[in-house]
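Protocol step 4 of 6: record predicted structures for both targets in the notebook before any analysis. Target 1:
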Amino acid sequence: MKIPISILVVIHRSNGEVLLIERADKSNFWQSVTGSLDYPDEDLSVAAAREVFEETGINIQFLPVNSLQNMHHQIEYEIYPQWRHRYAPGVTRNTEHWFSLLVPDSTPVQLAPREHVAYQWLPSSEAARKCFSPSNGEAILKLFSAH
């Protein structure tokens, strides 16, 4: 069963472009990297680094120090009904913690084909509009409003 605590990582370049990835299980569902904790007391930064690597092939250990930043923002949202079966019975809400990851412009992306089928780099405002999840769009806008 999935733990109802997750991370969202907005991956971006210095020019303001944001990486969006399209889910394999839902056509035209564009998002940032997301994922649940593997165990209840898993460090959020460790979970963020793990999910980034699993979904994009980007290993933060090879990036400059402090490339991954905790945005110190969390939201609670209702889990979409079609995905509730992944959680314990009766679990309907998830707490999501936001991170950002600044990558060099030349960083290659290698998707996990079982999870995602396409990716694109978009200007932040366009990326925020394209996200299926409103909170994902909010995370992108929050990140770039701070710059």
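Target 2:
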Amino acid sequence: MNLHRNDLKALPAETSHLQHLTSLDVDGNCLQDLPNLGNLTELQVLVLGHNRLTEIPDWFFGLTKLTRVNFRDNEIARVSPKLARLVNLTNFHIENNILRAFPKEATQLCSLYLHHNFIEHLSEQFSQCNYVSLRSTHVVCKYPPPSIENYAQPLEFFEVQLDLYDETES
């Protein structure tokens, strides 16, 4: 179902009755909250980018057939470690939010888009990814920058634009 750019302020509660829905695109609306969509157990693609969401609702972590999710351009500050429960999820967009960290438990991801957040520390949580984007003028990483030598597989793409700072200059 494509409800892209319809100036929606809310999704109808009846959306939760569409149990055989495999794709829901509500990108580019004015959503601040979502109804409980936990009944959409066949959902594989969920696009919620360019809205005004401030959190990822708990029911989201029960949508185990999700393979691709887009939360870009919202106001989300936290991603729960429960993201690891979504074992089929391989493509996760959450760029242009206000994240300071990302759950290290989410090791199933192949493509991870985190750029334009406030991620301060990188870890080997990305070791299974073949595409990682962290580019941002907001990313601050204490010198030296993180190493990617210990990754399990070669990365097709790893982009980090870091504003390195010297603590002695402060």
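Step 5 preliminary note on target 2. DSSP finds no helices and seven strands in the chain. Confidence is low (pLDDT under 50) at residues 137-155, 161-170.
Proceed to step 6 after PI sign-off.
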